[in-house]
């Protein structure tokens, strides 16, 4: 399955909520959800039927997939890894998604969206514990240090401080960022309360348990 390349705003409208896929634009009046908070192709006035239990579970899975920018097969592998871990599968799933390299780059403020973070990682702009890494799905762990690769710190994007000018939420407590040195660290494993996305992970567990 190829990665989605269509309009990001269409995905937000499909889920009926902001998924923050376009960075700063999502915080402005240009956000499509502000103007048309209903799926594309609908007039917004048609009466829709009450969704089935399966539909609710599927929509929740699709919503989380789109928030983190993960393909279907990737998402299923992450879920299977979450099942193998001790504890609650739903919380384990969100922890694994939060600890993805591209998500950590986004959470630290190096990028204004996860899509942008994924692109920066793919282009080799970051190091993990001093080693150059270009795998967005890499799982980080407490103690890992994220820094800019040699030469990347001279790039205009980072020099201008665009990565740290975001108006979105502050760096979560499980991460630490030094804006001047442009170095971030994973302090601990994220807890459920650290995940700001409005998701009901139990619905995803039920979906895969069918």
Descriptive report:
The chain has 210 residues and is α+β, with helices and mostly antiparallel strands. Helices cover 38% and strands 8% of the residues. It contains 9 helices and 5 strands; from the N terminus they run H-H-H-H-H-H-H-E-E-E-H-E-E-H. The protein has helices spanning 8-15, 32-35, 53-68, 72-84, 89-98, 101-108, 114-122, 156-159, 201-208; strands at residues 126-128, 131-132, 145-148, 175-178, 183-186. It has a 5-stranded antiparallel beta sheet with strand order 2-1-3-5-4, covered by helices on one side. A hairpin with a 4-residue loop joins strand 4 and strand 5 (183-186). The radius of gyration is 18 Å and the shape is globular. The mean pLDDT is 82.
What does the secondary structure layout of this molecule look like, with pairings?
Blueprint: H1 8-15, H2 32-35, H3 53-68, H4 72-84, H5 89-98, H6 101-108, H7 114-122, E1 126-128, E2 131-132, E3 145-148, H8 156-159, E4 175-178, E5 183-186, H9 201-208
Helix pairs in contact: 3-9, 4-5, 5-9, 6-7
